[in-house]
Amino acid sequence: MRHSAEGWWIEEAGAPAPCPPLDGPIDADVVIVGAGYLGMWTAWNLLARDNDLNIVILESGLAGHGPSGRNGGFVNGYWEYVPSLAEKFGAERAIRLAELADESIVAVGDFCESEKIDAWYRAVAHVEIATSPNQDGDWREAMWGLNHLGIDDEVVELTPDQVAQICYSPEFRGAAFKPFGATVQPARLAFGLRAALLARGVKLFEESPVTEIDQHGDSVTVRTARGRVHADSAVLAVNWRTLRWPTFARELSVASSHIVLTEPVPDVLEEIGWVGGEALSDCRRMLHYFRTTNDGRIAFGWGGGRVANGSKHDPRIDVDPEVIERTAATLRRFFPQLEGRAITDAWGGPIDVAPNSLPIYRSSGAVHAGWGFTGHGVGPSNLGGRILSGLALGADDEVTNCPLVEPKVKYFPPEPARSIGGNLIRAALIRSDEADGRGEKPDPVTAAITKLPKLIGMNLPR
């Protein structure tokens, strides 16, 4: 098994030749820091708002090689959040946000079609499956909340027999069926978006870490080791590295997620009936998520990786043999038909976790930032690009006034309490999930620790 930081998606997609780093001064209308999905969708939407804009993107590494090129490739929406959002913002605004997220799912597919990008975009349902008695009905609070708002078709309960018609596993029980979603090959999407932006005249400088952002009057200067960009506004789209900016640092934490990938097993997929490409996950607090690939592999992920110590890069966020061993064992438990079949690749990466599990968009003068996708950024980052493009241009429209912009959220504690507490809660959640899987109750201390996030007003983990 090859265990690396970047993983199979990037290798399969074929990384493009890098762009040169920034060398010297340059001017722009908008400078974007970060060339992942959020930064690149922001550039794409800026051009949709004004095709004549001069846009510069600065990327510390290589575009699409971070979380955007390594994730599970689930393109999801926001319907399960509507009941809780309705309590804060009213039903109309909450429902409209979910509709905007659905528009982004469609927009990703339309982009792939119009730009002729083979990102393996496939419109499929997302099925959240109970794998133990304690997980049964985990989705009902959200489903009933939607029903109360007159929405009956966005989260639908399935019986175990209905789940088995989609995919059979001896571990699977009932489920929640979410009909509107998609999957993609994430690195192919990222590299395709990069190519489309370059073709539209966007200037991309890779291997150009930002050292300083200096605001002066109504403009901003962004500096790297070898150059600077002077612009009317700046967009910060750097995922977990947002922690390096004190203005925003208390509103996110950094966890990690890891994926294992099988060899092609089309015969196994036929045997278990998983031939529709549905995106699946379980209902654990530290959830497992899994999907198939175009060549008949199973990509199986676990969101139970370690919590990082602030902005310090822990190599185990990307490569963690202990987490991969746990993930591979669960894959084989879910699908014993894989006995004797190889797991060929494993990789991981950081997750920018928001206090309420939904992304946050804020402005500080001429700097506009977005973060906190909490492992669900493939589709919502497209909406994020619409939001940040509007904020960067001073637009007052539907997306710049949606509930994700300037929300009131709880602060995470400062370091080292944030990472120490986060890993304490992580360990308790893992113990609780394992006890749940054995049909047992967790010990009293573990049970108490797992309740801490909600007691302090945070919806953690994802």
Automatic annotation (TrEMBL):
SUPFAM superfamilies, A to Z: FAD/NAD(P)-binding domain
The molecule here is called Unannotated protein
**Listed InterPro entries:** FAD-dep_OxRdtase (IPR006076), FAD/NAD-bd_sf (IPR036188)
FAD dependent oxidoreductase domain location is 29-389
Give any Gene Ontology cellular component.
cytoplasm
Q: What PANTHER family does the database record attribute to this sequence?
A: FAD DEPENDENT OXIDOREDUCTASE DOMAIN-CONTAINING PROTEIN (PTHR13847:SF285), SARCOSINE DEHYDROGENASE-RELATED (PTHR13847)
Segments spanning the bilayer are none
